[in-house]
């Protein structure tokens, strides 16, 4: 198992964004709903209900309300959950291209959900951010 990276410059230079196949949906169900049949990518319990991120096919099959249709990009670098600045740097790069993003941090990687139709643009922005960090590291 790799060691988590906390240095921002190293994170940016090695983030290697990868687009996951398919479309994903943010939806919300009532608190207490058994979401196991949805095979969610992620869940988050809020006062108003349970947010679920599921593949679009499942959302449509289950009749879940579509709050946001997204492409899922994984930053494959093993990021430290206590690292400072990665989310801000990614959001800033995507903001420059007017691309909204929703970030989910997990134990090993950060996951970026962007509007499905902007996936290629988001990947290009993130690749540019990484290339810039590599140039800065070798300067």
Please provide a written account of the structure.
This protein is of the alpha+beta class. It has one domain (8-138): VC0802-like (2-Layer Sandwich), CATH 3.30.2130.10. 32% of the residues lie in helices and 28% in strands. Strands 1, 2, 3, 4, 5, 6 and 7 form a seven-stranded antiparallel β-sheet that branches. The relative contact order is 0.23.
Q: Percent of residues in helical segments? A: 25-40%
The CATH superfamily appears as VC0802-like
- Helix and strand content put the structural class at alpha+beta
| Chain-averaged pLDDT | 95
CATH topology type: VC0802-like
Distance between the termini: 30 Å
The assigned CATH architecture is 2-Layer Sandwich
Compute the number of structural domains: 1
The outline comes out as: globular
Number of helices: 4
User: What is the beta-strand fraction?
Assistant: 25-35%
Total DSSP E strands: 7
Poorly predicted segments: none
CATH class: Alpha Beta
Cα Rg: 16 Å
Largest sheet: 7 strands, antiparallel
What string gives the helices and strands in order? HEEEEHEHEEH
Oligomer: single chain
């Amino acid at each position: 198992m790799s060691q988590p990276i906390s240095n921002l410059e190293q994170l940016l230079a090695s983030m290697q964004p990868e687009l996951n196949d398919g479309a994903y949906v943010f939806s919300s169900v009532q608190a207490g709903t058994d979401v196991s049949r949805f095979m969610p990518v992620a869940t988050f319990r809020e006062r108003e209900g349970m947010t679920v991120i599921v593949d679009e096919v499942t959302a449509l099959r289950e009749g879940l309300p579509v709050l946001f249709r997204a492409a899922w990009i994984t930053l494959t670098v093993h990021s430290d959950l206590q690292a400072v600045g990665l989310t801000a740097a990614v959001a800033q790069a995507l903001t420059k291209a007017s691309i909204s993003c929703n970030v989910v941090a997990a134990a090993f990687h950060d996951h970026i959900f962007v509007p499905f139709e902007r996936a290629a643009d988001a990947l290009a922005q993130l690749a540019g951010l990484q290339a810039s960090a590599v140039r800065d590291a070798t300067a």
